[in-house]
Write a structure and sequence with these properties.
By secondary structure, the protein is an alpha/beta fold. It has helices at 11-22, 51-61, 76-86, 124-137, 172-178, 197-206, 228-239, 250-256, 272-276, 286-298, and strands at residues 2-6, 26-31, 42-45, 67-70, 92-96, 144-150, 153-154, 182-185, 191-192, 195-196, 216-220, 226-227, 245-248. It starts with a strand and ends with a helix. Bound molecules: NADP nicotinamide-adenine-dinucleotide phosphate. NADP nicotinamide-adenine-dinucleotide phosphate binds next to helix 1 and strand 2.
């Protein structure tokens, strides 16, 4: 396929671009050019916030793409830009959303896409929901679209940690090696289903040319449901050190950190819709994925 990534040198977008090249696709990536792209990716330099420059870069690339993946859409105008610009340039567009679209206080277990309780508070998750709405309201045309809502994404290229107060903690490995207790909200009891970034990349690529995925929104989660503390236990095991957890009381943490409330709930999903629609269901076990993640950081 001819694949265009919007983004391409970040954690998720870089993993996607690399995987797409490894799978034999021809891959373009549009970024502002601040970081190197994975080898083999055709660079397009433009700031998507500068609409005329972005349009010029896309038009100059000239290629019709089999798949365009917007890895870095955060505001409704990004979704509108996707619809306007790529409608005539690709058969299929994937938009990367988030599971933070849901109101954490009104989740179901598992949380499926028929739960209508979304955040509408101007937060990151609320704005991603507005992006989704742009696609849902768009006139049907020749371009089909698919939206994925990843939960916690981990893997090489990112920092380690899935829960406050040690989410993406740059010092996690040194802390564990020093025998420092980890302070986890709720003692780390919240359930999660972390997805390994290369599995997410495969899932995204599998949506192309899949008519069943057209106009659909899917959860993007890993194969295992675990208590968040298990994530940290596996890292400690890998390092050969003991894990000690100090519990941060949920109510007090939430009152002091209202911006973190989307973390303070169980985040679990049923992946049957992926399987039923023939998508690449994430399968990397957490222990295998975390081994690769820890090793990448140690290297
Ligand atoms: N991490 C998680 O657990 C998680 C969970 C759910 C969803 N997500 C979603 O995953 C996506 C994150 O993607 P990522 O990891 O690749 O992000 P990232 O690491 O922040 O990288 C951003 C990428 O986009 C490029 N970029 C940034 N601003 C740009 C602009 N204005 N114009 C053009 N290019 C620009 C950057 O390159 P330059 O700096 O060179 O421009 C870089 O390639 C987001 O959609 C996020 O909502 C993440």
């Amino acid at each position: 396929m001819n694949v265009l990534c919007i983004g391409g040198s970040g954690f998720v977008s870089g993993t996607l671009a690399r995987r797409a090249v490894e799978s034999g696709h021809t891959v373009w990536a549009v970024t502002r050019g601040k970081r190197p792209l994975p080898p083999g990716v055709v660079p397009l330099a433009a700031d998507r916030r500068d609409t005329p420059a972005f349009e010029r870069a896309i038009a100059a690339a000239g290629a019709p793409w089999d798949l365009v993946v917007d890895c870095i859409g955060y505001d409704p105008q990004d979704a509108r830009q996707d619809l306007a610009l790529f409608r005539s340039r690709t058969r299929h567009l994937v938009f990367v959303s988030t599971d933070f679209v849901f109101d954490p206080d009104r989740r179901r277990f598992p949380q499926n896409d028929d739960n209508p309780h979304f955040l509408a508070d101007g937060s990151y998750g609320a704005k991603k929901r507005l992006c989704e709405m742009e696609f849902l309201r768009a006139e049907p045309g020749a371009m089909s679209w698919t939206i994925f809502r990843p939960c916690h994404i981990y893997g090489p290229g990112s920092l380690l940690g899935c829960l406050p107060a040690h989410g993406r903690d740059a010092d996690l490995i040194p802390r564990l090696r020093r025998g420092e207790p980890l302070r986890l909200v709720g003692g780390g009891h919240f359930l999660q289903q972390p997805i390994f970034a290369p599995d997410l990349a495969e899932l995204i690529l599998s949506a192309a040319d899949n008519p069943r995925a057209a106009g659909r929104i899917y959860p993007a989660a890993g194969p295992e449901i675990i208590e968040s503390r298990e994530f940290y236990r596996l890292i400690a095991n890998r390092l050969g050190v003991a894990l000690t957890i100090e519990e941060l009381p949920v109510a007090a943490y939430r009152a002091a950190n209202p911006d973190k409330r989307s973390f303070l709930c169980h985040r679990i999903y049923d992946l049957r819709s992926l399987r039923d629609d023939g998508l690449a269901v994430p399968a990397t076990s957490l222990s295998e994925g975390l081994r690769a993640h820890v090793e990448s950081l140690l290297a």
